[in-house]
Amino acid sequence: MGGGSSGGGCRRSFLPHSLRARTTLGVTGLALIFLTAIGAGANFLILNRVQAQIFDEAERVAVNWGASLQPGSTRQPVPRTRIDLLQLVDSRGRVVTASAAAAGRPPLSAVRPPADDRIQARTECSGPGGCVMLAAFRVPQPESSGLRPDEPRFVYAGMTRPPILTGYLLQLLTAAGVLLGVALAAWVNWWAAGRNLRPVETIREHLSDITVSDLSLRVPQPPGCNEYALLVCTVNRTLARLDEAVKLQRRFASTTSHELRTPLTGLRTRLEEAVLYPDDVDPRETVREALSITGRLETIVDDLLVLARLRAGTPAAHEPIDLGALVVQEAAAQAGDVPVHVHVDRDVHVRGNRIQLVRVLNNLLANARRHAGTMVEVTAERADGQVVVTVTDDGDGIAPQDRERVFERFVRLDEGRRREPGGSGLGLAISRDIAQAHHGTLLVEDTPRGARFALRLPIQQEPAALADPARR
């Protein structure tokens, strides 16, 4: 399988897919640009420095030797520096005296510095032996007394231009240094990127071993608290949540199939009896029982669809709701022999979906009336920035070990099965999911007698209260 396929739909690109190769390519390009600029600048500075040193030295030698000449002197100069080409030339261009290296050579230059600019530096390439870097110095007249004013003398001091200024040795050495530096930068980045990305490869290998059938595996936690450790920690938490979700889904599928199989089996049994024993079975009774079982199946399916939408996080339209008025309305709509006493504070407002909140209140009220002995008490009040709705009955209550189990799907306690044999066991599970979808909670709280369900939702101030600071 090619690299593009293994990457899970990677788009084609001229760049390599490997992050290690990409970073190395980028660092190599930047290093090449950076080092080339540095090399070019260094090469320019070195050449200028060498040339400036030669000219400075030539000027110094020319001035010192010209100043040491006596009138009529023709002594041969003896250079003690690398400036080995020395000549004294008269106004007619004749060499009066010269160093050993410059003996027999024509004048090194034809330049004649004027009296107001006695010394000039230049490079002459007209003579044999290559280009000469020299300084031309006009010997001052006071220093040459005895000579006619119209016969000045000139000193030329210089040297053959060195190879560093004539060839490409420096450029070649600079280019070699740049290439070596680029290669070193590329190798260091390749090694460092491989070392830094090694934990990512380890994470990838372990994740590839994890399948849906076995989500219990975890990625080994690396030491330290760097980005890789935080990534592994997040991955393991995600795997734990996924493992728990899959387990819940499997339990839900198993429980759902069992809950649906029971009424379907009963329905099939009734229909088969009506077909096999038409003389012994009352058709009207069979149809009546079949409709009853079908109604229970419909209730279970509707509740399952509601749960699926809530668990999928499907957004529902929210609006400001006077929860106190809604509690009073739903409590009055509950018909039955058990009275419902309602105590509601004023201005108890929340933001939520009216249909979903009505379903929660109906589930809690129906559950309380089913288990109550003589009465049901409902309250809605503010507490700690929340709206708290409690539904309390005076029945047998719920054991502490069962107070969380009652919110699980298809869980029905023995008392609930006895009082309502046809229930689906999904009402409280749906109610809790609705509460959580509204950023609230639904719990069973302690009470001296019976059972108390407490629904807590974030409070929302009325528009008038928001506009009037005095009411805050």
From TrEMBL:
InterPro entries recorded: HAMP_dom, HATPase_C_sf, HATPase_dom, His_kinase_dom, HisK_dim/P_dom, HisK_dim/P_sf, Sig_transdc_His_kin-like_C, TCS_sensor_his_kinase
UniProt key word Transferase: yes
Example of a GO MF term: kinase activity
Entries under SMART domains matching the protein: HATPase_c, HisKA
Record's keyword annotation contains Protein transport: no
Chain ranges passing through the membrane: 25-47, 168-192
UniProt-listed Pfam families: HATPase_c, HisKA
PANTHER family found in the cross-reference section: SENSOR HISTIDINE KINASE TRCS, SENSOR HISTIDINE KINASE YKOH
Protein's name according to its UniProt entry: histidine kinase
Species whose genome carries this gene: Streptosporangium vulgare
